[in-house]
Design a protein that fits this description.
By secondary structure, the protein is α+β, with helices and mostly antiparallel strands. It has 3 domains: about 5-225, HUPs (Rossmann fold, 3-Layer(aba) Sandwich), CATH 3.40.50.620; about 255-320, no CATH class; about 335-475, no CATH class. The chain contains 16 helices and 21 strands. The protein has helices spanning about 5-15, 30-50, 65-80, 90-100, 100-120, 130-145, 170-180, 195-210, 215-245, 260-265, 270-285, 290-300, 365-375, 390-395, 425-430, 435; strands at about 25, 50-60, 85-90, 125, 160, 160-165, 245, 255-260, 310, 315-320, 325-330, 335-340, 355-360, 385, 400-405, 410-415, 420, 440-445, 450, 455, 470-475. The strands form 5 sheets. Strands 3-2-1-4-6-5 form a 6-stranded mixed β-sheet, sandwiched between helices. The longest helix is centred in the middle third of the chain and has 30 residues, at about 215-245. The model is unreliable at about 330-350 (pLDDT under 50).
Length: about 475
């Protein structure tokens, strides 16, 4: 075992990244970092009884070069008898659809595909090839964009089932290791393009910093490691304050959260900032683009009179009400008719309301696990969770959802395999008198009913393990 292999082995065991019998999926790009990662895990395979497989995601961007990378990864895995999976995706198209940059979409899609493949083969670990240079680049990137403590605390060795075994190696050590094994790798030509922020940091800023201070990389990564420890301590203190002052009883993605202002003010100011940030993220259902200005705007309300409120761009309203700061999600579509395009028809003014909420399943968590984290499946027969992608595929992108009276040809799916039943039969089985049935409101798309309040909810488009976006439909009274 080489010194580099021993260094990685010690890091993995000390940080608890690998256990005996683990099944590990390697994200294999074909570059030096991921090839090094694959070889080191294969070296540890016998000692820890590991199952090692690999997945390559072809982004559909670089034409012949992308095909070269795919062929290289396939041949490498064939040579060393590593189970291999290749996924081809149109990243530019998906980036446009999601409103993300190509760089961001590429990263998100990679992790989505890694998780899907791991689920399919039953792997409990996903290994990615971040190294010390990545830590330094991320630190600089976050520093320049104005991140606070958490953003400056580097890249963590483990996040759920995502592990980073070679995080302690520098890029120089990685290249030396592969050179010693006489193992080649591919080079992404876009790594030299300065239009990407990280490439500019990698190719311009860090080399200049090392000219000024030869140990700049070591010092930056050491600072990031130190800030990670500080962040862990501060987060523990902030969590204690959160538990004292936040009325958070509605699961992982609630529509509103209340904060006790007096208790919040008893904490240190910078801990209050963390609590506010956490609440915004939780109600908004996102962490991306939550700015310090948003947090400061909320904190300013602490000294305002009751009734004052602000709108945040994340679809939230924050209001001071006596001794509480109330965070409410505004992106609730209701009142009678929903077209799948966020439009509302208020003409049916005497109807009850229906509300639609959407949640993204976090990376590394399957859809069913996430449902149980947010409180489980509704049991009140007025709410239903659907797989959003399956829902759109089933009804079409321009579906029209309505709250209306029961029609004679209405049906509802009553079994997971799609078997259905006429709604009038369901009402009859429930012993609902005929005279009362005409007053019952249902939520439906066309003739397919989704909710018969208090009686039955549909089994169509159920949430499953591979669900990545959940749509929650709830029928409410106007007073609610």
């Amino acid at each position: 075992m080489t010194k580099i292999e021993e260094k990685v082995r010690e890091f993995c065991l000390t940080k608890g990244l690998l256990d005996t019998g683990d099944s590990v999926v390697v994200g294999l790009s074909g570059g030096a970092d991921s090839v090094c990662l694959l070889f080191i895990l294969l070296d540890m395979k016998k000692e820890l009884d590991l199952e090692v497989s690999a997945i390559h995601v072809n982004h559909g961007i670089r034409g012949d070069e992308a095909q070269r990378d795919e062929d290289f990864c396939r041949e490498l895995c064939h040579t060393y008898k590593v189970p291999f999976k290749c996924v081809k995706v149109d990243v530019p198209a998906i980036a446009e659809q999601r409103g993300e940059s190509i760089e961001e979409a590429g990263r998100n899609i990679r992790y989505e595909e890694y998780n899907i493949y791991a689920d399919v083969i039953g792997a409990n670990k996903i290994a990615v090839a971040h190294n010390r240079n990545d830590v330094a680049e991320t630190f600089m990137f976050q520093l320049f964009r104005g991140s606070r403590l958490t953003g400056l605390s580097g890249i963590r060795p483990m996040n759920g089932r995502i592990i980073r075994p070679i995080l302690q190696l520098t890029r120089k050590e990685i290249e030396q290791y592969l050179s010693g094994k006489r193992q080649g790798y591919v080079v992404d030509s876009t790594n030299q393009s300065l239009q990407y922020s990280r490439n500019f940091i990698r190719n311009k800023i860090l080399p200049s910093a090392e000219e000024l201070q030869p140990r700049a990389l070591e010092h930056i990564t050491s600072t990031a490691d130190y800030l990670a420890r500080v962040t862990d301590y501060v987060d523990k203190q902030a969590e204690k304050l959160y538990e004292l002052c936040v009325d958070d009883f509605m699961g992982e993605a609630p529509a509103h959260i209340d904060i006790n202002i007096n208790m919040l003010k008893n904490g240190e100011y910078f801990l209050s900032e963390i609590v506010i940030y956490k609440v915004i993220c939780k109600v908004a259902g996102r962490k991306k683009d939550i700015t310090s200005e948003a947090v400061e705007s909320c904190l300013a309300l602490l000294d305002k009179q009751s009734g004052r409120s602000i709108d945040l761009k994340y679809g939230l309203m924050v209001k001071r009400s006596y001794s509480k700061l109330i965070f409410t999600r505004k992106s609730l579509r209701s009142l009678g008719r929903y077209t799948g395009k966020d439009s509302i028809d208020n003409s049916n003014a005497n109807c009850n309301n229906f509300v639609i909420e959407e949640y993204d399943v976090p990376e590394g968590i399957d859809g069913l696990e996430y449902v149980y984290r947010i409180g489980g499946f509704p049991r009140d027969l007025r709410s239903r969770l659907f797989d959003k992608e399956d829902f759109v595929e089933h009804f079409g992108a321009h579906y029209v959802m309505e709250l209306r009276n029961v029609a004679s040809d209405d049906y509802i799916v009553v079994f997971e395999d799609g078997r259905r039943k006429r709604v009038v039969e369901v009402l009859s089985d429930a012993k609902i008198p005929e005279d009362d049935r005409q007053n019952i409101k249902v939520v439906a798309v066309g003739s397919e009913v989704l909710i018969i309040p208090g009686i039955r909810t549909s089994e169509t488009c159920r949430v499953h393990e591979e669900t990545i976006q959940i749509m929650k439909l709830t029928l409410t009274n106007r007073e609610e």
